[in-house]
């Protein structure tokens, strides 16, 4: 799957023809707990992350890749210790100052042998105005190893605004619907702040979910991976 997405991303880059308007940035981060849609991917432990992004300001096309250490595929008996994301899309502005962002994102889990596979492909569309954004992601494959879960969806609403002294308030609420697995569907939320100190950006957030303990407990030690918790992340983009 990631080969298919990588090929599509390369085609986008070559077709724009705006080399002078293109830019590549890199990012690295360390987090006390990698939470994805409110669920810990690291069994409530720290993670290291890194990525690269290319964007063409003239056309709005962009592409990127991102990696993080994880534990959940190994804990589920499938092996693997890394999540590798590859994505691409286009962003721009509609009438009335409404921003849009549409694209495709593939999640790959190298060296894991879960059946069904943990690998997932989603299409997404986002609208935003000012500090508000609304995004929907739609799975065209099984969702992260759930059998017969094609068509699952995630609706995500966010609010991000500077509140003074360079501090940005981050609010988020989302709803994960797992097709064919009603007991695995849940709501997640986040309240946090972010501040860029120049040498690094620091984010502190309190996250939680309504996920059922039976569906989201670690098979290794029984810890509930959707529990409420504070998460600290230090990152840098260059």
Question: What labels describe this entry?
Answer:
mainly beta; 238 residues; Porin; two-stranded antiparallel sheet; 2 helices
Explain briefly what this protein structure is.
This protein is mainly β and 238 residues long. It has helices spanning 2-16, 72-75, and strands at 22-31, 35-36, 39-40, 47-56, 61-69, 82-93, 99-108, 120-129, 132-139, 153-164, 167-177, 186-196, 201-209, 229-237.
Structure, explained:
The chain has helices at 2-16, 72-75, and strands at residues 22-31, 35-36, 39-40, 47-56, 61-69, 82-93, 99-108, 120-129, 132-139, 153-164, 167-177, 186-196, 201-209, 229-237. The chain has 238 residues and is mainly β. It has one domain (2-237): Beta Barrel (Porin), CATH 2.40.160.40. The strands form two sheets. A twelve-stranded antiparallel β-barrel has the order 1-4-5-6-7-8-9-10-11-12-13-14. The protein has a two-stranded antiparallel sheet with strand order 2-3. The two termini are 29 Å apart.
């Amino acid at each position: 799957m990631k080969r298919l997405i990588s090929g599509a991303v390369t085609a986008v880059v070559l077709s724009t023809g705006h080399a002078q308007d293109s830019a590549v940035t890199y990012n690295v981060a360390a987090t006390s707990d990698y939470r994805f849609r409110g669920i810990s991917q690291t069994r409530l432990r720290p993670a290291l992350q890194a990525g690269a992004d290319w964007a063409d300001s003239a056309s709005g096309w962009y592409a990127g890749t991102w990696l993080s250490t994880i534990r959940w595929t190994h804990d589920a008996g499938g092996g693997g210790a890394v999540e590798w994301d590859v994505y691409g899309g286009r962003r721009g502005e509609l009438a009335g100052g409404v921003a849009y962002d549409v694209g495709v994102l593939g999640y790959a889990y190298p060296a894991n042998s879960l059946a069904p596979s943990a690998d997932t492909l989603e299409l997404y569309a986002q609208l935003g105005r000012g500090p508000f954004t609304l995004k929907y992601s739609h799975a065209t494959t099984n969702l992260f190893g759930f059998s017969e879960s094609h068509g699952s969806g995630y609706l995500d609403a966010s609010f991000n605004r500077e509140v003074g002294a360079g501090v940005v308030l981050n609010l988020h609420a989302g709803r994960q619907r797992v097709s064919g697995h009603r007991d695995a569907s849940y709501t997640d939320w986040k309240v946090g702040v972010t501040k860029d100190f120049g040498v690094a950006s620091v984010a502190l957030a309190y996250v939680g979910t309504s996920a059922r303990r039976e569906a989201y407990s670690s098979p290794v030690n029984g810890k509930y991976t959707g529990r409420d918790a504070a998460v600290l992340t230090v990152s840098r983009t260059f």
